[in-house]
Amino acid sequence: MLCIEPPRHAWRRPAIQQKQLVQEQPLIPKPVKALYNCHNERKTRPSLDEVSKLLCSIIESYSQVFIVVDALDECKDNTRTKLLSKIRNLQTQSNTKLMATSRFIATIMEGFKEDIDLKI
Question: 16: Cβ–Cβ under 8 A, 6 or more apart, which residues?
Fold first, then answer.
């Protein structure tokens, strides 16, 4: 299961997901090492697209992946939109399940209108 940190670190989420998936594998995949080495040498961070592509390739080696996003309402609107877009894209390309928690906010609820919801 993937757990994602609270939204104040939204830019780190895909990297956290990758770390958790990679830790389950006996060896670190070559693409992960290559991306790490490339950015470590330059003291840069990978782009969202680089991380998303890498995450997608890692997910392919699992029969099913669960992504849990906590406190979605605490993300900035544009960050939340990008994050959900990337996760929804993963869902169409693999057997990835999403669970998200949020306070009731109409724009967030609209994005999940076709999904099962549980009010707590």
Answer: 2, 3, 4, 5
Distance of CA 85 to the CA centre of its chain: 10
Task: Write the Ramachandran bin of 71: left for phi over 0, alpha for psi from -120 to 50, otherwise beta.
Answer: left
pTM of the complete model beyond 0.70: no
Q: What is the pLDDT along the chain (120 residues), one digit of tens a residue?
A: 444 444 445 545 566 666 667 676 667 888 889 999 999 999 999 988 898 889 888 888 888 889 899 999 999 999 899 889 988 998 888 889 999 999 999 999 999 999 999 988
Distance CA 1, CA 33 (A): 22
